[in-house]
Amino acid sequence: MPIFEYVCQECQHEFETLIFGRDKAKCPKCQSKKLSPQLSVFAVAAKGSTGATSPTGGCGSCGDPRGPGACSLGDMD
């Protein structure tokens, strides 16, 4: 299931959501359907991938400086 990132045009809330089938996304804060789709960290990395394994920026979900998906790794210390 794809995860999409949006910014609400009404309240400027940034969020991610799963979209099932023909469902339309709506802002979880104000319920508006006026949304601006954003490029996710994963989409940018996949299109510009050169085979390098080091991340190019913080996690798109939480901003963890270890890179995309790092927040799901837990504390590695």
List keywords for this structure.
77 residues; mainly beta; 3-stranded antiparallel β-sheet; 3 strands; 19% strand; globular
Question: What's a quick, concise take on this entry?
Answer:
The protein contains one helix and three strands; from the N terminus they run βββα. By secondary structure, the protein is mainly beta. It has one domain (3-72).
Write the layout of secondary structure elements.
Layout: E1 3-8, E2 14-18, E3 35-38, H1 41-47
Antiparallel strand pairs: 1-2, 1-3
Task: Describe what you observe in this structure.
By secondary structure, the protein is mainly beta. The chain has one domain. It has one helix at 41-47; strands at 3-8, 14-18, 35-38. A hairpin with a 5-residue loop joins β1 (3-8) and β2 (14-18). 6% of the residues are buried. The mean pLDDT is 74.
Report the radius of gyration as a whole number of Å.
14 Å
Proportion of β residues? Answer: 15-25%
Enumerate the spans where pLDDT stays under 50 for 5 or more consecutive residues: none
Terminal Cα separation, in Å?
31 Å
Number of strands: 3
> What is the percent of helical residues?
under 10%
Helix count equals 1
- Order of secondary-structure elements: EEEH
Total domains: 1
Class computed from helices, strands and strand pairing: mainly beta
Largest sheet: 3 strands, antiparallel
Write down the oligomeric state.
Answer: single chain
